[in-house]
Amino acid sequence: MMTAPSLRTLPAAYQEYARLRREMPVFHDAEADVWIVSRFDDVRTVLREHRHFSSCVLGQDSFEIRSPVDGSVLPAEETLLASDPPRHDALRMHVGRLFAPERLVACEAAARRELDRVIVQLVQGNRFEVVHDVCEPVVAAVMASVFGLDTCWRECVAQWLQVSGQCNARSRPASLKARFDAMLDDIWQAAEHCPDAGLGVFMAACHRGEVDARHVLDLTVTLLKGGADTTTYLVGNVLALLAEQPGLVSDIRRDPTLIPALIEASLRRDSPVQLTVRVTTADVELAGHRIPANSRVILLLGSANRDETVFGSEDEIHLDRREKSHLAFGAGPHRCPGVALARMQGGVIVQALMTRLPAFRLVPEHAREVGLRALCGFDRMDAEFLVRESNGATAGPAKNLLPASDYRNRQSER
Ligand code: HEM
What we know:
By secondary structure, the protein is α+β, with helices and mostly antiparallel strands. The protein has a single domain (4-413), classed as CATH 1.10.630.10. Helix content is 49%, strand content 10%. It contains 17 helices and 12 strands. The strands form 4 sheets. It has a 5-stranded mixed sheet, sandwiched between helices. It is globular. The model is unreliable at 1-6, 392-400 and 402-414 (pLDDT under 50). Residues 58, 80-81, 92, 146, 222-223, 226-227, 230-231, 234, 272-273, 276, 301, 328-330, 334, 336-338, 341-342 line the site of protoporphyrin IX containing FE (HEM). Protoporphyrin IX containing FE (HEM) is lined by residues 58, 80-81, 92, 146, 222-223, 226-227, 230-231, 234, 272-273, 276, 301, 328-330, 334, 336-338, 341-342. GO terms for molecular function: oxidoreductase activity.
């Protein structure tokens, strides 16, 4: 039976967050020598105050990026993630161009096309795996579209996403560095042959001398890392939420226009990116605490988004209430540039699963949560169809992800 504890281990972390917010909202962990910030207002202040809280510590464990032109290495402070304004603004401007509204329309079309293909395959079997069978191919199709690459690059982009996802992981296979370097070679080739859209935008900036070849690679890799697993985690979290609160399934079934509200509620409640980090550039005061210069500050986005003084203490989700704006995508200069894309992708995938597939249930014993405190989501989530016609086809009304009570009834009917 699908209940919250069988799918999730996070509630323990959420209780710990609540204790931090209550008792020590700005806390110095002396052993690790880091400051931990857990309340909404304080987290948002730090994200916005780039002068006192620098991003220069981000991406420190990334592999180096070498120029395909002269072999020089890109210094960390020149990467998108680790740079601060004004240098950051200049890089970020190029990324923004990839997410212009007309590009998003093309990306949505790519997502829907890929979902059409995926769904035809899914309904031929008895069960499917949400991450591998649904999210990964759709995300690859969308990222290829973001980069302005046609379908012959799809397999390549899927591999880039896989390598980038592994770069985010704690334990990396020994072969990863070689695969990362091969990916950089591929990206450069793709960018050189790209028309105006996507990677062509970065190349045009390179030809104008606004960035160099290393930046073209860094911007692309950062997009891949940012988009690799986050949307997949979002989709898994939404499905887990529906399994935990079956009433929402009926709401969505009755009115699919509530899906964006469901996505937003999930993003806030189970934020795929649970934390980020900054370093102080001078002695600063935060909520009455003096934090010395050069201190690492961990910002608990997942805690800020559950701050009861902002969002109330009720754990139930009500889709008819407008969610207050949350910090799942960060804030300030580094706020996620993929916000609209993530919402669109998450929405079309959830909608397809809920309205175009026959009834299915998640298989809790085969759900695997990401084993990292910094991320929240599932890297495996199995589902099985509930009804089969005698001719072998799955059938029945779109009663997807049956609520526990429905599922219980159906079991006893068998
Ligand atoms: C549910 C999905 C997503 C979530 C929850 C998410 C969350 C975040 C957060 C919290 C940050 C800010 C980190 C910080 O300030 O330290 C960020 C940055 C970033 N995200 Fe996302 N993201 C998502 C999807 C995407 C997608 C789909 C892309 C690209 C296709 C993307 C690309 C990026 C990039 C490039 C940055 C770095 C921006 C910068 O440093 O200026 N993200 N994301």
